[in-house]
Hints:
Blueprint: H1 10-26, H2 28-34, H3 39-48, H4 66-79, H5 81-100, H6 103-109, E1 117-118, E2 123-130, E3 133-143, E4 151-158, E5 172-178, E6 183-184, E7 199-209, E8 213-216, H7 232-258, H8 275-307, H9 314-341, H10 352-363, H11 372-382
Parallel strand pairs: 1-4, 2-4
Antiparallel strand pairs: 2-3, 3-7, 4-5, 5-8, 6-7
Helix pairs in contact: 1-3, 1-4, 4-5, 4-7, 5-7, 7-8, 7-9, 7-10, 8-9, 9-10, 9-11
Domain Acyl-CoA dehydrogenase C-terminal: 239-369
GO biological process, one term: fatty acid beta-oxidation using acyl-CoA dehydrogenase
Keywords: Oxidoreductase
Amino acid sequence: MSEPRRSPERERLLAAVERVSPVAIAHAEASERQRTLAPAVVDALHSSGLFAMAAPRALGGAESDPLTQIEVFEAMARADTSAGWSLMISAGISALAGAYLPDEGVRRVFAGPFPTFAGLQVPSGVARRVAGGYVVEGRWAFGSGVRHARWVLTGAVLAPEGGPPPQGPPEMISVAVPREQVVIEDTWDVAGLRGSGSDHYRIEGVFVPEALTCPFPAAPRRRGGALYDIPLVALLAPCHAGFALGVARRALDEIAAAAPLRIKAWPRLPLGSHAAFHMDLGRAEAKLAAARAYTLDALGQMWDRARAGEPLAIEHWAAIRLVQTYTTDVAAEVVSFAYRAGGGSALYAASPLQRCFRDVHAATQHIGATDDAYEFAGRARLGTAELHPLLAPRPAAPGGV
Length: 401
């Protein structure tokens, strides 16, 4: 029997977001000033259990399905963008660590209170084989949440051990490193997502035991259900799409609330009385609703195939990649409309509209929302697309788990 389509913990998780939201909103400016998520918000996310929402149930997680994840990330980003981004990063990486690390490594990483995570899922470092594990060196960008993380899960290329050079892509691994063994660089002085603390970080000759590593990007599932049979890019797709939807929804909330109060300099009437604004607001609502429906449909089909044990075909991959980029693009359009409609008052640091504008445009720069998704979809439609290694299916779980 396949897993249920929706997580039984959906309502609990959404209720947890409601409890955390007032804390995140109250500390939003502090997160911006400190350029990392305010400690009070980190504590609230911890106590709510939201950091564990995507991790396997065997490790204390909720193992929430992709559709539930979209809704939870959307709701948290709607309340506060920095909290929403930080939640989706830590929760997404906890799913990777929890599902794919060996048992011995998991016992260490998940000992005690549920851990927080950071780490760029791009192999920017090098791992050299030694007795019992690897020595890892490298520098990675965009370590969102690294200042409040307990563990960093990141990628590295295996250094050649002699002999002829390997054919095809190099062998890669993920490594889990305690935050104390990671050097954080104070680089996150940016326009958008300032409160996410996405600093660069370095690992300088750290020994990582074999038990704290797994293959990258196609590690076999070691625990949990069908969710973790989904390949890496698809597994993380709900994170970025949910975040973008939440930011756009917050922007429309803000401009709808401001419209009756904002008097336009010419002709001295409230913005909310202008027919042109009504039309633009209606179009924005339709765009966002359509992008949301597309997101739920595309990732819902992905989840249905995973529950049925069916592989993802090229057309599914095209939709998974498209939905992340397209939804982010639509969110940016919607937020830009709301920001411009907000007029001069939207310029001020106290305005949520300027923060939504900056943060959604920061999200458009993320690797999960690149324009080549459109090219891939076009080639898939013409039958000329090929699967990238990051889209490769996972091998069967050890022992038929």
